[in-house]
Amino acid sequence: RNWRFQRSSMSKEIHKLWREVRELSLGTNIDRLDSPPSPVQFLRDYVSQSKPCVISNAIAHWPALKLWSDPAYLAGALSNDLVSLHLTPNGCADAVTPIHDNKSTGDLCFASAHVVKVPFPEALEAVRSSTKGKSVAYLQQQNDCFRTEYSTVASDCDGDIAWATEALGCSPEAVNLWIGTDLSVTSFHKDHYENLYAVVSGEKRFLLLPPTDVHRLYVRRYPAANYSYDPV
User: pLDDT per residue over 205-215, tens digit each?
Assistant: First the structure.
């Protein structure tokens, strides 16, 4: 009884904190800026408060915005480069997934994608021909993949976001690139970094939750697994 009482009391306090943070700190709207902020404004209004924002016209000068809109350009520029292609049957990599085998009784696992290194043109075609239920391909690889696997086209973008670098007091530790379709979904996760996302083509949708929403995430432990893809 005491344990139940303590848990109930803690739950009430967590919900109270959750409401206060939303009402007094975060608000209900995302700031949209028509141009990049100054380093001081970015640090003061967003980084220090852990508040997200959407910034327009921040990368309009990048050659990538024009060049990458043509798939033939990327296929030609990266024709000799091997890149990491992630494959899943449903577009959900690094996600809690039912175990499909004869021994499973509704058990769940944390399933990661099947990863294979292939020439970029082949990888791009796999992404563009993705079909849910068969094979959904996604080009990505953490740990600074843009400056390693895609270094051939790195000059199409700035090496960093100057005003963000000044605000944060350091250069980017990692620069990553994601290429996919609307079939690819990233599960809820937490990042231990300050992140900036530059959308070169298409769109990317985010659902962001503050740390005070942890009670809504139902964090659990699951056995790890990997998809194994047989193209035959």
Answer: 998 888 788 77
